[in-house]
Specification:
Three copies of one chain form a homotrimer. By secondary structure, the first copy, chain A, is α/β, with parallel strands linked by helices. Helices cover 49% and strands 14% of the residues of chain A. Chain A is built from twelve helices and nine strands. Chain A has a six-stranded mixed beta sheet, sandwiched between helices. A three-stranded mixed beta sheet of chain A has the order 5-7-8. In chain A, β2 (33-38), α2 (49-64) and β3 form a beta-alpha-beta unit. Chains A and B meet through α6, α7 and α11 of A and α6 and α10 of B.
Amino acid sequence: VSEEAASTPEPTGPSIDGLENVDGLTVSKEGKIFKITLNRPKKFNALTLDMYKGIQKALEVSNQDKSTSITVIAANGPYFCSGNDLTNFKAAAGGTKEQVAEMANTAKVVLHDYVDAYIKHEKPLIGLINGPAVGIAVTVLGMFDYVIATDKSSFHTPFAPLGQSPEGASSYTFPLIMGSLRASELLLVCKKISANTAKDYGLINEVVPDNEFEAQSQKAIESFSQLPPESLRINKTLLRSFHKDQLLKVNDMECDLIAERWQSKECHQAIAAFIMKGSKK
Amino acid sequence: VSEEAASTPEPTGPSIDGLENVDGLTVSKEGKIFKITLNRPKKFNALTLDMYKGIQKALEVSNQDKSTSITVIAANGPYFCSGNDLTNFKAAAGGTKEQVAEMANTAKVVLHDYVDAYIKHEKPLIGLINGPAVGIAVTVLGMFDYVIATDKSSFHTPFAPLGQSPEGASSYTFPLIMGSLRASELLLVCKKISANTAKDYGLINEVVPDNEFEAQSQKAIESFSQLPPESLRINKTLLRSFHKDQLLKVNDMECDLIAERWQSKECHQAIAAFIMKGSKK
Amino acid sequence: VSEEAASTPEPTGPSIDGLENVDGLTVSKEGKIFKITLNRPKKFNALTLDMYKGIQKALEVSNQDKSTSITVIAANGPYFCSGNDLTNFKAAAGGTKEQVAEMANTAKVVLHDYVDAYIKHEKPLIGLINGPAVGIAVTVLGMFDYVIATDKSSFHTPFAPLGQSPEGASSYTFPLIMGSLRASELLLVCKKISANTAKDYGLINEVVPDNEFEAQSQKAIESFSQLPPESLRINKTLLRSFHKDQLLKVNDMECDLIAERWQSKECHQAIAAFIMKGSKK
């Protein structure tokens, strides 16, 4: 990693103690900012199991890092994140019942630990949403502290159409954030919403015109990162304390349920239809 | 019920196993949709004790019905529902203390079981609000999953002016949905709000121009009803699970309190004044 | 207190049983309205320890007063309230560790009892926000029932920049009112918001043009005060009951934490810088 790399606008940076390189992920420190960037633009930043584990590890390392005061999650390319990489499921679709069960239980543990890392994060967590966000990339937003999105972004959690159930602790956080009817609109009947609606619903804080997104995001995170770091950590911990136990419990329940759903007929039929549709294009 | 009736736009339909006819109520199945329609337009769909029991029973039958995937509550006429039929109280107003107490306790049980049926409902519950909604017709909206309203609708819960207390679990659901200050605006100082304000407050999901209301409502419920039914039921159950025990407890408390209020001087004076005002018009 | 004073628009009034005069505070009864007015306009209504205790006592007296049905908190001058009077801290800044600890523990008890009085208040609590509100004047709004603000008001809780932590039970009420991301926007990264944003966030109910503020506020509180008083008190008590124990516990936690923060290096540095900045102007 060179000094030159640090001067480009791309979020590459010096390697960080305790973190291995993961395909599709860039982790960097920029001043007081610990930054995790989804970097698999050709696949719309769909999350592989390695990327889940890499983000989890990066959140844990940032938690311990005293040289930075906030954590930022951003992405490269036209999408923020298209959610869970369904190719995992594709492999499973042709497998035996036992193979599907094994796949489901492996993925469940990865998902569980991924979401736990958000629940246990102690720094302000800032999201920079540069384009459409889908599934798990939307549901975990309920555990962020400040989210800025381009007006080209959208938010979609198509659980029911895919025969799946909500994760990311969203079945608990979304009703608290936006009320039960809006939460059902997203998580139950699964409507896709625009950036402006997401702002109205309190799921994000700010919508910025696409051509100003990078400059305004950078300005905001630099400003937040200058606040007294101990206060940030202590105040975040206070705010989280009233919900932490329940969030951990909800994550357990959601992961148990989704592992069941991954083995259900409705889910297999829905994913087969989805992949078929994709392959016809 | 005739075949002819089924071909009109009115939501009549074939009789349903386990359900008796109730004056002022029409229950039907339309494809994957289980539909309950308030049908007492000359009385602005005010709820008689029989209508409470009929809706409760219909919600229970829909819960058991595997042939439909969602439950819809709609209404005929210019009003959605003017709330509790005050003629019950009118009779009581002239009675002895014991007669009033008996009336209050009978009504309390009916109200309690009515609200419990909403709490225990397992299908997505969709509300189509065709006009003004008052009292209990507003408070139970906190247990719906998606509500579409015409721009001619309004929402009013005049508990304090009538010497009464909130029901429908609203003292718990409204603060969660819209925050405590907006909840107090509705439930404590009892301001009437427009459809657009109800949307801003997250009490409803969508406001539609009156002349497009029927077509857009129909399109929405047909679309929702096509989602995988097992996923809908499982995901609704997950979302409800974090609040169900508390909702049941709140309903108990609210019913105990309102039965006391119905026997209070403030309530009798307020209702007498209300009926007097009505009879002078 | 003279008859003349009572005829001016200023909220002075007859002295009230059980209340002593407090500099910077006017307490009055106007019809069915119990009114507490911040009256230290030259200091932007910054709260001295005596004012905290005076407001607490007034809330308690109003609680017991059967001749009024609602409690109103208003203010004189261009500001609603600039928050905690930092001169207390200024004195402490030069003191020994023991003196700072003593100051922190004294202030903690005053703050604790002040916030408890809001939690235990049984009448509808109405806020009339005539200008900027800062710190504790903002955080306690989560325990009001209806708030009207002029369009010249703003809302700011600069805890982190001052090395402090949230109080007024806001770490619990704000996420419930506006969702966790907006709560973090205010309480964690500490953005100042306008009256219109505060209304969007459900922290206040109504924004009124500044030149209409006095007339419209007066009209609203007179209207609310005419509602049946027993119903108001019973319904407020019901709404509060689901949160009261948690609010008391949160207040305890917040007060313990802020007393620690007042003794922290980050806090002392931030306040010194703030006072330095002020003295250079």
